[in-house]
Amino acid sequence: MQARLLLVEDDLEIARIICDLLRREGYEVTWATTGLEGWEDFQEASYDLVLVDLMLPEMDGFTLCKNIRLKSDVPMIIISARTEDADKVHGLDLGADDYISKPFSLVELKARVNSHLRRWRRYRGVPEREQVSSYTNGLNIHWNQQKVLLNEEEISLTEKEFSLLNILANHPDRIFSKSDLYEHVWNQVDAEGLHTVTVHIKSLRAKLKDPAKHPIFIQTVWGKGYRFIGDIL
Q1: Do domains 4-124 and 132-228 have the same CATH topology?
Q2: In the CATH scheme, what is the code of domain 132-228?
Q3: Phi, psi dihedrals of residue 229, rounded to the nearest 5°
Q4: Region for 15 from its dihedrals, namely left if φ exceeds 0, alpha if ψ lies in -120 to 50, beta otherwise
Q5: Of these four, 12, 31, 174, 232, which has the most CB atoms within 10 Å of its CB?
Q6: What is the CATH number assigned to the segment(s) 4-124?
Q7: Residue 112 and residue 120: Cα distance in Å, rounded?
Q8: What's the pLDDT tens digit per position in 95-128?
Q9: 88 vs 160: CA distance, rounded Å
Q10: What global pTM score does this model have?
């Protein structure tokens, strides 16, 4: 089940990275660059989680958190460069559910967002719908459980292998360079990581019984990268 998230962050580069991360996870993300804009966005739509920076123009993050909490019980995560205990306590006292200090790990941010969304859904009594994609040649992907079946037999994938399959399968026919995949899956920008992508793609193909010369799932586009070519049923 797709969730709607509101990000209020005035740092363009940080906002871009967070938006890219959360959208790759399948979330719908609205981005506001000022506290006032974030407050207006919150009042105009329904959100499942809000991420708020503290040092915002027009309306600071503390005021925004206070206003949101007076209106809704939606989960709120503060993301801030202010690491003083007093700021953390003040933010939590105003109703924030979590506080992440900059700089932060993208892996940790993703985990915290997912955790708060699960609690929010349980609080509202919303069951998580099982999401399954079925393809020709016997491939079935159970997204919620991160389980992959080939001809009804479960395949044991590592976390990175599943993440690669996730990105490729959810953007069929789009070509991803090795740099793209390394940035998305490993959350790093590093030319030395390209060999790591090659090794993991090779392992993933072997487990999917997908020959590189005659692919049925992952195709190599020479000089460009990889794309998913599995036909969905």
Answers
A1: no
A2: 1.10.10.10
A3: -120, 10
A4: alpha
A5: 31
A6: 3.40.50.2300
A7: 12
A8: 788 888 888 888 888 888 988 888 877 766 655 5
A9: 33
A10: 0.55
